[in-house]
Design a protein that fits this description.
- This protein is of the alpha/beta class.
- It is built from 11 helices and 22 strands.
- It has 3 domains: about 30 residues; about 210 residues, P-loop containing nucleotide triphosphate hydrolases (Rossmann fold); about 160 residues, Ribosomal Protein S5, domain 2.
- Helix content is about 25%, strand content about 25%.
- A 9-stranded mixed beta sheet has the order 6-5-7-8-4-9-10-11-12, with helices on both faces. Strands 13-14-16-15 form a 4-stranded mixed beta sheet.
- It is elongated and about 75 Å long.
- Belongs to the RecA family. RadA subfamily.
């Protein structure tokens, strides 16, 4: 009797194979990703001779036509901004995000806008029924005669729909719920995801058909499935946002046709998703009255400079351990800034006070350029003096008490001046002591504000 072929073990992240099971992948060094793989099946690709005169013959790069690979606007300006100007024919775009963030709503809007321009769009939904998608499309106004809808979970049937409809844009929602009969395993397993993605991308390249693929994420925020999926596609976009906030951001982590430092802004409304072309007013208070403990900084989201208001509240306490409550900023940097203010700026014993720091609009500041605004907001709250409404600050604070310059300072300053901020403190302030002194000189106390209001 012939011996059965030994089972192979494959890493679900990078595809590395081994004859026996190991706990750690020898290629990508990930733990717990090596699993037994079934015998691979699929279409056998035989060698074919290259025939002169066919389009697949290698040609000099100067003779390749570039007009067929230009960006074509999708109709959603914020989405086109992230992609680099639009969708390139034959491109494979992977869109991932947390459950419920609005991926399907965004792509349905993209499909409707593209269909409105005269392009035929095929929207394949493998998670919802056709009636459910039709109901959402009617609510968001995404109905169009050139938008075709198919509820399919089989890869062969999806390919048949492509042949029947002949679309100019294909949307698959999602790659983890479509399966192929040629591969053993349930939908969503690495082998199934690899086969489905490879087939869709091959169809996209052969026909010049752009494909938008929705991908699920795991509990740690990474894209579910093999890591090979991110290498196969041309563009990897992340759609993110807080469920408690209506604001959504889309950014590209990989883009073969454009930049990866652009950010698109959207807002979830009752009628679907709306573009936010100028989000400068989303992260600032609507009140024009000066209040102590507030300062505006200019943060960078991709290439966009966004003004963000930082609020601070400092309250005396008799507790042995004062509270440090932060929302939207890094707690470790806040603790460092408090120590620098107490040691280098002579702000008093902040260890005897509870300090609360928050940002307006739920935005999260992760760059060190917000250090100076946080320090001025804390100083304003301690001395109960409000900085003027036309005051903005950005700069990194070091442990030595220096204010260091930050990246793209001219762009930040230009955006602040465009919005009416005439007094700007940046990395040229020198030290944090001098920066706080300048801010407090421009600030007014509560008594002065009451007198100004009276007269």
């Amino acid at each position: 009797m012939p011996k059965a072929a030994p089972s192979a073990f494959r890493c679900t992240e990078c595809g590395w194979t081994t004859a026996k099971w190991v706990g750690r992948c020898g290629e990508c060094q990930q733990w717990g990703t090596v699993a037994e793989s079934a015998a691979e099946t699929g279409i056998v690709r035989s060698l074919r001779p290259v025939v002169v005169g066919q389009t697949r013959v290698a040609r000099p790069i100067s003779e390749i036509e570039a007009e067929s690979s230009v960006h074509r606007p999708s109709g959603v300006a914020e989405f086109d901004r992230v992609l680099g100007g639009g969708i390139v024919p034959g491109a494979a775009i992977l869109l991932s995000g947390e459950p419920g963030v609005g991926k399907s709503t965004l792509l349905l809007e993209v499909a409707a806008r593209a269909a409105a321009t005269g392009r035929r769009v095929l929207y394949v939904t493998a998670e919802e029924s056709a009636a459910q998608v039709r109901l959402r499309a009617g609510r968001t106004g995404a109905l169009h005669s050139e938008l075709y809808l198919a509820a399919e979970t089989d890869l062969a049937t999806v390919l048949g729909q492509i042949d029947a409809v002949e679309p100019q844009l294909l949307i698959v929602d999602s790659v983890q719920t479509v399966s192929s009969e040629r591969i053993d395993g349930l939908p969503g397993q690495p082998s199934q995801v690899r086969e489905v993605a490879t087939t869709l991308i091959r169809v996209a390249k052969e026909r010049g058909l752009p494909v938008l693929i929705v991908g699920h994420v795991t509990k740690d925020g990474t894209i579910a499935g093999p890591r090979l999926l991110e290498h196969l596609v041309d563009v990897v976009c992340q759609f993110e946002g807080d469920r408690q906030s209506a604001l959504r951001f889309i950014r590209a982590h990989k883009n073969r046709f454009g930049p990866t430092d652009e950010v698109g802004c959207f807002e979830m409304t009752g009628d679907g998703i709306a573009e936010v072309s100028d989000p400068s007013s989303l992260f600032r208070s609507t009140s024009r009255a000066s209040v102590s403990g507030t300062c505006v900084t200019v943060a960078l989201e991709g290439r966009r400079a966004l003004p963000v208001e930082v609020q601070a509240l400092v309250v005396a306490t008799k507790a042995p351990q004062p509270r440090r409550v932060v929302n939207g900023v890094d707690p470790s940097r806040v603790a460092m800034i408090i120590a620098v203010l107490e040691r280098r700026a002579g702000l008093g014993k902040l260890g005897e006070h509870d300090v609360y720091i928050s940002t307006v609009g739920g935005v999260r500041l992760v760059e060190p350029a917000a250090d100076l605004a946080i320090a001025i907001a804390i100083a304003s709250a301690v001395r109960d003096k409000a900085v003027p409404n036309d005051f903005a600050a950005f700069g990194e604070i070091s442990l030595a008490g220096e204010v260091r310059p930050v990246a793209a300072a001219p762009r930040r300053a230009a955006e602040a001046k465009r919005l009416g901020y005439t007094t700007i403190l940046d990395g040229d302030a020198g030290s944090v002591r001098s920066a706080v002194t300048l801010a407090m000189q421009a600030a007014t106390s509560e008594r002065e504000r009451e007198l100004d209001a009276a007269f």
